[in-house]
Design brief:
The protein is mainly alpha-helical and 127 residues long. It has nine helices and no strands. Helix 1 packs antiparallel against helix 2 and helix 2 packs across helix 9. The chain is extended, with a radius of gyration of 19 Å. The two termini are 23 Å apart.
């Protein structure tokens, strides 16, 4: 989620229309097709169905990622789960009436540039 929010923000800052950002990121349904092909043909084999632009962009962006930083973050999250830290905090959250969930739900209900663009797209498409 955070990656999409940041990508949206950066694209809009660069002058890309918000609706175009939504369509490029997920509004076109392309990501659904990609994930379906992961499920049906496998993660790596699905890439064989991509066009040259997607394949080229995928490899150069993958090679440019800070793999170790991502792995370190994932290891920390996994450790938090396996050691019971997440569960303990969530139990405390429940005992206290779910204050963080309340904050999250309030954020979800707020208007944002993303939801505004999504609403405009839905209106244009008659949904």
């Amino acid at each position: 989620g955070m990656a999409l929010m940041i990508a949206f923000e950066v694209g809009c800052e660069a002058g890309v229309p918000p609706e175009a950002m939504i369509m490029e990121m997920y509004g076109s349904g392309e990501m659904e097709s990609v994930f379906r092909s992961f499920r049906e043909t496998g993660f790596f084999r699905a890439s064989e169905e991509h066009g040259p632009t997607a394949l080229y962009g995928g490899i150069i962006r993958t090679l440019g990622m800070d793999r170790e930083a991502i792995a370190t973050s994932f290891r920390g999250i996994l450790q938090d789960i396996t050691t019971g830290g997440f569960a303990a905090r969530f139990q405390d959250e429940a005992k206290n009436g779910y204050p963080m969930l309340g904050i999250a739900k309030a954020m979800l209900q707020e208007r944002s540039p993303i939801t505004t663009a999504e609403d405009r797209i839905r209106r244009l498409l008659g949904r």
